Amino acid sequence: MGQTLTEKVLDDHLVDGELETGEEIGIEIDQVLTQDTTGTMVWLQFEAMGLDEVQTEIAAQYCDHQTYQFDFKNTDDHRFLRSAAGKYGAYFSRPGNGICHNVHRENFAAPGKTLLGSDSHTPTPGGLGQLAIGAGGIDVTVAMGGAPYYIEMPEIVNVRLEGELPEWATAKDVILELLRRLSVKGGVGKILEYTGPGVESLTAPERMTITNMGTELGATSSIFPTDEQTKDYLERLDRGDEYTELQPDEDAEYDDEIVVDLSDLEPLIAQPSMPDNVVPVSEVAGQDVDQVIVGSCTNGGYEDILPAAKMLEGREVNPTTEMIVAPGSKQASEMLAREGWVAEMMAAGVNFSEATCGACIGIGHVPASDSVSLRTFNRNFEGRSGIEDDNVFLCSPEVAAAAAIKGEIVDPRDLADELGDLEAPGIELPDEYDGSKTDLITPDEAPDDELVKGPNIGDVPLRDELDSDIEGEALLKMEDNITTDHIIPATQDILMYRSNIEKLSEFTLSRVDDTFAERAQEADGGFLVAGENYGQGSSREHAAMCPMYLGIESVLAQSFARIHRANLFNFGIVPLTIDEETYEEIDQGDEIEIVDDVYDAVTSGQEEFTVRVNGEDEYTATLDASERERDILAAGGKLAWTKEQAEESGSGAAPADD
Ligand code: MIC
Ligand code: SF4
Q1: CB of 38 closer than 6 A to ligand 1?
Q2: With a 6 A CB cut-off, is 34 part of the ligand 1 pocket?
Q3: Residue 250's pLDDT is what?
């Protein structure tokens, strides 16, 4: 039987297990990336494991999320990260050089390689045929130390593209269409592999908009085959020699197939406040727009900003609307500046931001109260923009620019009819990506060789071995699709404590219930209860670390998002799955007890657990976990487990810290 492209790359990197859906596999990781808000813990854990040198072909530390450095704590984090990159042998991308996914795709992403990153949008270079996966920080730490990365072999879904995009429809509309059809949990446990005749019409950057936002489907990764488009893009980056042809076999078998006819697509928009709340732009046309932002790791490339710039050429941003361009990388800004486009946009009324995540997580450009913001980003979870009752829509740069011109949501096709001289800008790649590399410091040029820890850099929290008795209050009951932005928000006031878990944990779940952290600390143990897809969104392991720090021992949910589920194991919190009926029966404040001896049950492979509520009714909860995950849980988390492993084997991969 032939192989899918995903299977080929996995096969090439397989060090443990077999490529059978649902089986645990271990794969070798070629490249890792980490960023400023997850990276501090990555390196603190690297240090705590006693590792002394990066083992992967490439490790890159980016400073991208909080580059405005509003507080010395952010700057301390960046200084620590530079020192860690220098000491352990990683590339260091200075604050302002750009968003990790953009800078990585420009410099390192390569077909056929594996990439693990402590950011959920790590799958972006899947558009170049790289198998890239987002993970919690400690998983990245361990991979950087040279150990394999373990995942459950996902289902592989064939997304067959047919036809070609019509004018004004874009790559963003392809992924919005998939979100409309599949929802934010439609990709959980799956890798989306794009095939079909429609693929060749999409340039590599367009493909990367699609693979970037595959994360919003909950997918483990997304990948395109490689072809002339891939080669062409790599050549323009002056990395043509890294091209390899990668295609699935003709008789490859997939677990499922979805067909998207590109020629049927039209401009789409995700309404507040979920990326899958998608409708045609025409359905919401006419709403006043207060703010427009073009940028982010989804649509912040040179190729994304240029269409908006062309649409604005000789025009003006509507007086009632503010427009900001937030480029994905400094290279994109530099090139657009040299070509005169930055000046053109400024003259049209655009504010040009530094290359940062910024507004995507509520750092800067927070919308006004009761206002509408149109963004080319990938997430519009409620409150993420920095204000609780936000109205954030997600769309393509073309739809965003059209709204900026008109001052209201408008289908760009209608705006073109109205204006008479507005042409569809289409997609255009530069002849060469020739931005400077000054802000990317190679391991050889590193100015530091010792860690520099300011007062904001705390310790890595640890939990003891798993308890046998777990009982306590259902401290919080939550609905479906709770995001990691609910669990640990990423706004400025909170983000600066990512290296200080004691302080950060005070904000745990504050967006759901601001009394939670205090109640949890007082209760000294207890449960979280949630509906479907608990922990969707970010890879931030802090969303497990902080509940652990507050004493949470188990989460009972109808289902879990992939990365967050792994993070719960990594921090010794027992993730138990319950059915809808059990979910309905448990109320916040109920006393819950796991009747089984939890330590014995976890280590002996038991799957069904009995949960007693208020000393009376009993329900079944399931622990669906591999032997490795059970061992990690029993040890009290991955750091403790990795040290145990190293002690037992006497291996240098992760020696004990004494
Ligand atoms: C996000 O888009 O939510 C983030 C902020 O990039 C996170 C990482 C983080 O929380 O630091 C992600 O996607 O993993
Ligand atoms: Fe940054 Fe937003 Fe992309 Fe996350 S989704 S990496 S915050 S730009």
Answers
A1: yes
A2: no
A3: 97
Instruction: Report whether 29 contacts 114 (CB < 8 A).
Output: yes
Q: How far does the centroid of ligand 1 lie from the alpha carbon of residue 581, in Å?
A: 33
301-319 residue pLDDT tens = 999 999 999 999 999 999 9
**Closest by alpha carbon to 301, among 549, 474, 105?**
105
CATH number of the CATH domain containing 204: 3.30.499.10
Structure tokens at 312: 């604005």
Q: Whose CA is nearest to atom 2 of ligand 2?
A: 360
State the closest ligand 1 atom to the C-alpha of 539, by its place in the atom list counted from 1. 14
Quote the mean pLDDT of the chain: 97
Q: Where is the domain boundary, 378, 401, 419?
A: 419
CATH of the domain at 606: 3.20.19.10
Q: What is the pLDDT of residue 653?
A: 47
The residue behind tokens 């592989």 is 156
> What is the CA(240)–ligand 2 centre distance, in A?
28
Range of the domain at 303: 268-419
407 residue type, one letter: G
Beta-carbon contacts of residue 296 (< 8 Å; ≥ 6 apart): 99, 326, 328, 357, 360, 375, 376, 377, 378
pTM of the model: 0.98
CA of 351 relative to ligand 1 center, distance in Å: 24
pLDDT digits 0-9 by tens, 489-502 = 999 899 999 999 99
